[in-house]
Fold this protein.
Amino acid sequence: MPMPALPPKNYKTPFASMIGHHVAIRVPDFEASKKWFVEKLDWRVLHEWPYGDLQLAYVGPATDDTFFVEILGGGDPQPKVIYDDVDASLVHAGYHHFCLTVDSVDDTVAELRRRGVTIIGEPFELESISRRLAFFSDPWGNLIELAQVIA
């Protein structure tokens, strides 16, 4: 079942200029997180800056200059729940994951496994949105979704 047609865009709203830019993740090890994105996902470190006692950086996909992950490091963050099952992760309120579109979920998961990345469950199809999906996590339990459009 394909996704329904999107409603028309509303250019009359005072928020018409809003578009997505980045999502932020809090990590206990700033340098290790940057290294993980670069070595495991082939992402680029785009910009770094301090904020109080924190260190921040934008990292972005190899070929995308429109979506970033902001890494928040430093200080003494509280530990978070680490999931090994997507369904178990759905019981808590709050931020859950961000999604990356790929040409092939299966090929991407195979390469992530080869690079030692933690895969959270096996790829599956969700017909209601015409997508093949998979989830993986960084070393600190931040979930990332992969999505492939299926016919």
Notes: Residues 80-151 form a domain with the 2,3-Dihydroxybiphenyl 1,2-Dioxygenase; domain 1 fold (CATH 3.10.180.10). Residues 132 and 148 are 5 Å apart (CA to CA). The helical segments are 30-41, 86-89, 105-114. The beta strands are 22-26, 44-51, 54-60, 68-74, 97-101, 118-119, 124-126, 131-137, 143-149.
